[in-house]
């Protein structure tokens, strides 16, 4: 009786040991197979990173855009009062000296803030009245005087615009009340477009704000201040 019972216990123990051994082998095989999967995942991750980097690089090269409206202002004090009420601020005074250079496509100007800083701005927009889409790119400069000299030599100067600007921020819109040397008083609305917005939505924002500020359609103008100055010079 002792031997069968002993053999039975040995079989049971052997069976357990066999199962344990199978489990160990199985884990070992899984561990051996793991590195290829990890390596494969790393390659995919690297490719995804490169794709995202490429997409981000493309986005960084995309020109910014806004919807603009320009109009003459007969009563700048009244306009400033309306803009101050809507923006809940008195606005910021900015002096600007813009130099436009000859350019085969779009417009290229150097904006000097008269404080040692400036911006080189390239933009494209149609010469129509009412809301219009403007696409632009900007590069800051800490030496506008030297940059103006280089660009003047390379491209030639088309004209210059000097103005005092009073800037109000209303929502996503930059509201400018400008006193332009040689032209008079004007206002500009610049609706800074969000990535998800359509041109039509930007135009609606501009038109709604134009109505709130009391800007009539009859006062709308086309072109840039530079164009208006050149037109005036040609007529005289």
Structural notes for this entry:
By secondary structure, the chain is α+β, with helices and mostly antiparallel strands. The chain contains five helices and eight strands, in the order αβαββββαβββαα. The chain has helices spanning 2-61, 76-87, 144-155, 199-212, 225-235; strands at 64-72, 92-101, 107-112, 118-124, 132-141, 157-170, 173-180, 184-192. The protein has an eight-stranded antiparallel barrel, surrounded by four helices. β4 and β5 form a beta hairpin.
Concise description?
The protein is an alpha+beta fold and 236 residues long. The protein is built from five helices and eight strands; from the N terminus they run αβαββββαβββαα.
Spans where pLDDT lies below 50 across 5 or more residues: 1-60
Biggest sheet, in brief? 8 strands, antiparallel, barrel
Number of domains: 2
Radius of gyration: 34 Å
Q: State the shape.
A: globular
* CATH homology group of the largest domain: Hypothetical Protein Pfu-838710-001
SSE ordering: HEHEEEEHEEEHH
What's the CATH architecture name of the largest domain? Beta Barrel
Key terms:
about 240 residues, alpha+beta, Hypothetical Protein Pfu-838710-001, 8-stranded antiparallel barrel, 5 helices, about 30% strand
Record the SSE blueprint.
Layout: H1 2-61, E1 64-72, H2 76-87, E2 92-101, E3 107-112, E4 118-124, E5 132-141, H3 144-155, E6 157-170, E7 173-180, E8 184-192, H4 199-212, H5 225-235
